[in-house]
Amino acid sequence: xxxxxxxxxxxxxxxxxxxxxxxxxxxxxxxxxxxxxxxxxxxxxxxxxxxxxxxxxxxxxxxxxxxxxxxxxxxxxxxxxxxxxxxxxxxxxxxxxxxxxxxxxxxxxxxxxxxxxxxxxxxxxxxxxxxxxxxxxxxxxxxxxxxxxxxxxxxxxxxxxxxxxxxxxxxxxxxxxxxxxxxxxxxxxxxxxxxxxxxxxxxxxxxxxxxxxxxxxxxxxxxxxxxxxxxxxxxxxxxxxxxxxxxxxxxxxxxxxxxxxxxxxxxxxxxxxxxxxxxxxxxxxxxxxxxxxxxxxxxxxxxxxxxxxxxxxxxxxxxxxxxxxxxxxxxxxxxxxxxxxxxxxxxxxxx
Length: 351
Description:
Elements: H1 2-13, E1 17-23, E2 28-34, E3 42-49, H2 54-74, E4 80-87, H3 90-109, E5 115-119, H4 125-132, H5 152-171, E6 180-184, H6 188-199, E7 203-207, H7 211-221, E8 224-225, E9 238-241, E10 260-261, H8 273-281, E11 284-285, H9 288-291, H10 294-303, H11 309-333, H12 337-346
Parallel strand pairs: 3-4, 3-5, 6-7, 6-9, 7-8, 9-10, 10-11
Antiparallel strand pairs: 1-2, 2-4
Helix pairs in contact: 1-2, 2-12, 3-4, 5-6, 5-10, 5-11, 10-11, 11-12
């Protein structure tokens, strides 16, 4: 059964290849999923997570790498889409993180530049510094080590501009003053987004499975809070999913009470059909691979294009304009916004 699932997932994926290994000493399973090199070497974050099984880790990498292809294309980056995933017990990770990252670096180096890693869930610029000592194929090392550092600010900034564009298209005005916005997931990106929204005058409601994050934001900004199980269905103008993917599906979409959705979480739609479900309900959806593309513009802008901070900020702001074009195209063609955004991205994938 497991072998069949691996095969079925790979056949449905349509990417180029998956490199994998198992580190016997730590029990860690590692997957590097290269979806496309049509625009250049693949690139994407390294995610470390405790999945229910190795095949689930690979499937997450497949989905995320596909989204990275679209994200790179929408940004006109000279890179393709990829993602790397490490499945390991959290206690083992805490005790043997250097050994696990060193083994990953060896796998990364074996690809000779076909794929570049970057920070993602449970990894950061310090980890990229460590990996860089063993393989040069990484983005977003610390600034002290010659990298561009954390992508958190620009990922949040891109999501903020996606919310502005969504408000303009769905609600008739760009001004967020008094608008109710639920931010689901207030880690690094979600927390930074909350601060931007508060400064813009929005009425922010936060939720997270880590209660300390919620308590901190409530204390600092006076925002409201809802339980994690109620976040998606809380009445609001705009829902901003900034946690894990798959939250928009056949079960949750009928229960939504918002006019628009614009968040930083990857792969928010559980299935492609959920795009049409949102359209049918009249809920505007800012496709996640556009809304969260600020992180790509951060790494590529600073490290490949040698842009200034102002140039990166301007490029991130333009994501809002891209979304307005996507919204207009979807309305004209009577399609879902995800479909319209994919069509735009795929038009840039020329071999």
